[in-house]
Fold this sequence. Notes:
Elements: H1 13-16, E1 36-38, E2 45-46, E3 72-74, H2 75-88, E4 93-99, H3 104-121, H4 127-135, E5 160-167, H5 191-197, H6 206-219, E6 224-225, E7 232-234, H7 238-248
Helix pairs in contact: 3-4
Protein name: D-Ala-D-Ala dipeptidase-like protein
GO biological process, one term: cell wall organization
GO molecular function, one term: metal ion binding
Amino acid sequence: MYDIRYQIPVADFNLIRQPHFQIPVDRQAALFDEAMVNVSDYGLAFSSWYAMTDGSNAPYGQFIEGSSNVGWLRKSFAEKLARVNHLLKDFSVELLILDAYRSIACQRGLWAYYWERGKRENPAASEEELQRYALRYVRDPRNFDPGNARSFGIHSTGSSADLILRHRQTGEWLNMGSKFEEYSEVSVTDYFERQLQQGEIGEDDERLWNRRLLHWALHTEDITNDPILYWHHDWGNQIWIKVKTALYGSSPTAAWYGYVGAPA
């Protein structure tokens, strides 16, 4: 379908589901304090899924408190994504960023959403049960500590981005096989690679190739995908190191991006 020779690596989820918290962050690294930039200044399209007010941002259907309509990322990461976007011109598609830097205020907003959703689904749920429910989707920010990666999401490092592909001319989203923020087996990145191996789909399946195109383009800049969700990508943080080790066998010993405060 696309003139690329590429397959998405099939992941070992025993490795992928290992925690990333124990991976060190090198606070002396040259990029540790790197500034964040507005992605629009790099020609990157951004539409905050959490800041939408028209109800179209499933599963939320509402504005998430603390979210922002400005997309921020570390400068080197934004530059890499800009180069990826240029590469994708030959395919008449571009990146659309739906979540970039996520402030602790937004993290608290997401935590509140899932907590309340858990209460609606199970009015008799205990505090412990509600906490377990919310933790399925988002880090617990209630005891936020900038030195403890367990207390904030990886998006708060400014080095993670949730991305899909869209047509450059029309803005229409490419068919990626499942909806953004759909937490299901189909959203696992290698789902269609496995389906192909099992003979459930054909080699020309557009969902397979759209995921391959996104994965391939980002891989040219050493940006990794979290194999659990086709839309989530990282560079230079703890999840990036975990995924590189699990999929490709080697990685740096320490991340260079840790928590960073929200831009003024």
